[in-house]
Design brief:
There is one protein chain. The protein has a single domain, classed as Alpha/Beta hydrolase fold, catalytic domain (Rossmann fold), CATH 3.40.50.1820. 33% of the residues lie in helices and 18% in strands. It has 9 helices and 8 strands. An 8-stranded mixed beta sheet has the order 1-2-4-3-5-6-7-8, sandwiched between helices. It is globular and about 55 Å long. It starts with a helix and ends with a helix. The relative contact order is 0.15.
Length: 318
């Protein structure tokens, strides 16, 4: 894979769990957008669809991926998330790194859930007692974070190619896959990002360069937090789901491909071990030879895998 193909793949993966099944110029009739917060000069929004004033539905919150650097809520949730229309699906914003550091990003996620609990029942006719969360890649990481940093806790989590430890060795050292790509200089990396708050990068953005630079140099944790994991490892504990699992952690499904070159399969194995130690109902769905965020899987396979994950979470909801 050459540099152009690599960046193109990153851009596609960062937008959502998968390519949207409907475009934003052809939104469903029940599509609604709300602003849940203003911070740093940014309006943070969430998009919802599937609400029905005559039926009180459970809610599925989806969190976009993109290494916390790319993507937006406008990576429209694909239909296989909610094929029967059982849920109200909500896709949330958060401010992107490196302009906003991780504590601010987590604060955005917490505020989105506060808004959903406070206003969702009235505005979207949702049952917040039946709330689950899903996301892919960095969205999978944020999904796992909601298992302990959001209150009330979600009733179930489905993480696709997520990770529970942001200072694992494969984050703090150069990525074997990334270093095979054309080197990105620090100057080019920083030229691709800015300083102002951002939630929706323009289509022509080159933010993937910043991510590649981070992975080529093993500095992703430092760049998204402003802290050095090699000298301040204890500071990172509060941002590592695998280190914050307790008996109160929600039922969780981890979906991961064994050939994922971005988030290594070990990330799922290690998170599963933490869930097992905490005696949390959980399931690791392994995709043999699968790439990042269902890479290499057919639409039919993806729909089947996600439906099984959803069934597991529903079965174990308290």
């Amino acid at each position: 894979m050459n540099r152009h193909e690599f960046l193109k793949t990153l851009a596609a993966a960062s937008a959502s769990l998968l390519v949207p099944s409907w475009s934003w110029s052809d939104q469903p009739a029940d599509f609604k957008t709300f602003t849940f917060k203003t911070a740093g000069g940014c309006e943070l929004k969430l998009d919802a669809y599937g609400s029905d004033p005559s039926v009180r539905k459970p809610v599925m919150v989806t969190i976009h991926g993109g290494a916390l650097i790319m993507g937006s809520r406008k990576g429209a949730p694909p239909k296989w998330l909610n094929p029967q229309g059982e849920y109200v699906v909500i896709s949330i914003d958060y401010r992107l790194a490196p302009e906003t550091k991780l504590p601010g990003i987590i604060g955005d996620v917490q505020d989105a859930f506060r808004w959903i609990h406070k206003h969702g029942p009235q505005l979207l006719n949702i049952d917040t007692e039946r709330l689950i969360v899903t996301g892919g890649s960095a969205g999978g990481y944020l999904t796992l974070m909601t298992g302990f940093c959001v209150h009330p806790r979600p009733k179930g989590l489905i993480s696709v190619s997520g990770f529970g430890d942001i200072i694992a060795d494969w984050f703090t050292h150069p990525s074997g896959f990334a270093v095979k790509q054309t080197p990105i200089s620090k100057e080019d990396a920083y030229a691709s990002v800015g300083t102002a708050c951002l939630t929706e990068p323009p289509r022509s953005n080159q933010r993937g360069k910043f991510f590649v630079y981070c992975r080529q140099n093993g500095v992703w944790p430092k760049e998204i937090t402003g802290r050095d994991p090699l000298t301040e490892p204890k500071w990172f504990k509060r941002y590592c789901p695998a280190r914050n699992v307790s008996a109160q952690y929600p039922p969780t499904v981890l979906i991961h491909g064994t050939a994922d070159t971005d988030v290594l399969y070990d990330a799922a194995v290690n998170m599963e071990a933490a869930l097992a130690q905490g005696e949390v109902p959980h399931k690791l769905v392994t995709i043999p030879g699968g790439g990042h965020v269902f890479g290499g899987s057919t639409p039919q396979e993806i729909a089947r895998i996600f439906a099984g994950a959803l069934a597991f979470v529903k079965e174990h909801m308290s």
